[in-house]
Sequence to fold (472 residues):
Amino acid sequence: MREYLKFYIDGHWVDPVEPHAAEVINPATEEVTGRISLGSPADVEEAVAAACKAFSSWSQTSKAERLDLLKSIQTEYAKRQADLGEAITEEMGAPASLANGFHVGLGAGHLQTAIEVLERFEFEEVRGATVIRHEPIGVCGLITPWNWPMNQTCVKVFPALATGCTMILKPPQLAALSAHILAEILDAAGVPAGVFNMVQGSGSVIGTVLSKHQDVDMISFTGSEPVGVQIQKDAAETVKRVGLELGGKSAWIVLDDEKLAEHVTGATAGMMGNSGQTCSAGSRLLVPNSRMAEVIEAATAAANGVTVGDPNGNFAMGPVVSKGQYNIIQDYIQKGLDEGAKLIAGGLGRPEGLDKGWYVKPTVFVGTNDMVIAREEIFGPVLVIIGYDDADQAVGIANESNFGLGGYISGTDLDLVRSVARRMRTGAIWINGGFDFHAPFGGYKRSGNGREWGDYGFREYLEVKSMMGFPV
Ligand code: NAD
Fold:
């Protein structure tokens, strides 16, 4: 049982101003696995004051000083990888192999990327007699979700540190344990007092105070669309910058070629990874109508082949994060049935033999793009297959969405693959499994307005200053 009741403010572990503990539930066992504190506005005030005070010195540090710090963090992060993996499995149910592998690895990847970008980043450019400076924006409120906790936290914290900003992290209540360990890592690495602060608690309290705070210069938010909208409203009065990384309903287009079955198998299994709780998951699988029978056979076999069970056992998929998330997913499966989608794998209820823990059956429907299950983000292991007649129609269906976060294309005709990729209105497209830590990540339309990862992630935290008439 973990007791993580203190907040990290001004370089110290401190008690909350008003004690208010909450339980952390392990979604695999439904049992209490830890206790955290829920902060109050008074805790936020202390954290913001510390971050404001630290900004005057941290913003003036050299690249070399910040690189030294990031490298110390790298050493400490490497020491705590197993602890982070264990906490992620406990708090959100990710299978241990996934938690220790990709989950923790994404955090390490963003740290290494921040180091590489900082090494070559030019904070000043000269254009004739004008010098354009890129300066840290100031005090940042970082508000993160639970679904890939290290990924989403590290992709904010390390660029913010690297660019000379100070920050207050507000982690999600459902993934508070790994966030606490990350704060221990930063403390051990010697982050100067006040540069990084962490206050746990509910979004409507801590997040709202941060969003409205006149001394917070920027909010970087990753989470759901409705909360992103609320944050923009709360931040409007103080005209702060708001970076939004929101939800998605991404299309995975499988082109008509000899590898179709293989691609459908990969896309279906991919959808079930992390129990489908991935913002950029390819949750709409677009396939040629002329080959629907083969598609159904491959997708059914792939979904039925995904083993579900104890995240500490040898299973591909663990539970979803909480009872609330389980119920939302069940409602969507019911909606799919009600609106006439054809169920070809999974369905309502827990998988056979699992009567405790928030386990969902890997579920696949064949439906149409106007159905609710094809339009709204389900955030669970539920795939909707939609047929198309030709590549132009596939692009049209992919783009007919309020979201525009990710996109996937599988196919062997690379000219066609690239022409389809160019026409998809989304912030990121993975072609035949490509991956790059330096590629910008963010959404079109209601998937947000920010760009994280690599050097684009640095720009989120920088102001631009023109100094004209600069002596040359
Ligand atoms: P959420 O919006 O419910 O919560 C995200 C964070 O916002 C949490 O820390 C929460 O406490 C906080 N919050 C809640 N209400 C708030 C308020 N009024 N003001 C300020 N903060 C508030 O999202 P979630 O359930 O944690 O995460 C799932 C969502 O995140 C999905 O929609 C998913 O697509 C999205 N997501 C997007 C990306 C991306 O990069 N685009 C990545 C991961 C997850």
Remarks:
- Residues 143-148, 152, 170, 172, 202-204, 207-208, 211, 222-224, 227, 230-231, 245-248, 279, 377, 379, 405, 443, 448 surround nicotinamide-adenine-dinucleotide (CB under 6 Å).
